[in-house]
Amino acid sequence: MRSCRLSGDMLWALVMLPVILSACLPVEIQAPAMDLTVVEKPVLKEETQPVPQTILALGDSYTIGSSVSEDERWLVQLVTKLREQGLLVADPTIVAQGGWTTDDLERGIQEADPQGIFDLVTLLIGVNDQFRGYPVQDYRPRFASLLAQAVTFAGGDPGRVVVLSIPDWGVMPFAGGRRTDEISSQIDAYNAVNFEETKKTGAMYVDVTGVSRRAAEEFDLIAADGLHPSAEMYALWVEQVLPVVMQVLTGE
User: Fold this and answer.
1) What residues make up the domain containing 232?
2) Can you tell me whether residue 29 is helix, strand or coil?
3) How many other CB atoms sit within 10 Å of the CB of residue 207?
4) What is the CATH number of the domain that holds 77?
5) Most CB within 10 Å of its CB: which of 35, 50, 99, 198?
6) Measuring CA to CA, which residue among 118, 139, 249, 132 is closest to residue 197?
7) Considering the chain, what percentage of its residues have pLDDT values greater than 90?
């Protein structure tokens, strides 16, 4: 039997064959492990902006501050004081005009048609009813109707309505030559009505009539027209109104 002798090259080929074949096999590439952790996006909280408290003022020349500058009106002075106390208060919405009676204010409200619920509603009306000689018994139902509307504008809460008494214009120079005692007596009668109706409704009441009568001796409390309050008198009104309004707006 003849032996088969392998050459060196053949021997090397046989030895390397498994290595060569293994190099030709597909290589399994292992992908890196996926990170399946769910990352929650942070929820951004909406910053709520504080809402200013709102004021509706119903009235006549006293409400708009006839014969004083806008920043001297008692309402504007009141808002300034409220802001100094740290309250966020919008500029007041005013439905008023010089010479308005209760009937005029009724029509003015219909035309202005104030929208929304107000945090505070003020009402000061009646001096022109008295000035024109309207009977006080006619004033009661008209005032009561306006007061009911004021409560509606306050969201049905009479505790958010503040009524101011009628000032006594009989002590003003404008009343010179008139029967001032009679004027003062009629003003008192009108105020007795609005006080009774206010208390019956459960609204707040502030008497500024006493302060107005100080003008008989304190002439700096009289505006240049000789009829209306000056800025100084309106500041005295605010001293009386402010504690009541603070109670209304803060509940304290």
Assistant:
1) 55-250
2) coil
3) 14
4) 3.40.50.1110
5) 198
6) 139
7) 79
Residue 35 lies in a domain: no
Distance CA 252, CA 14 (A): 104
Place of tokens 């293994």: 22
The arithmetic mean of pLDDT across residues 37-42, rounded, is 57
Distance separating the N- and C-terminal Cα atoms of the chain: 125
187 touches 168 (CB < 8 A):
yes
From 79, 171, 73, 174, select the one nearest 124 (Cα to Cα): 73
> What angle (nearest 5°) sits at the alpha carbon of residue 80, between those of residues 79 and 86?
90
Q: How many helices (H) and strands (E) does the chain have?
A: 9, 5
pLDDT at 29 over 50: no
Cα 10 → chain centroid: 104
207: tokens are 């008497």
Give the C-alpha distances (Å, rounded to integers) separating 31 from 22, 35, 37, 41.
21, 12, 17, 27
Under 8 Å between Cβ of 103 and 138: no
Q: pLDDT tier at 85 (50, 70, 90 boundaries)? A: very high
Cβ atoms 115, 79 nearer than 8 A:
no
Place of tokens 């919008």: 90
* Rounded CA separation 161/209 (Å): 19
The tally of domains found in the chain comes to: 1
Asked if residue 25 is part of any domain, the answer here is no
For residue 164, what are the β-bridge partners? 206
Place of tokens 């004027």: 183
The pTM assigned to this predicted structure is: 0.81
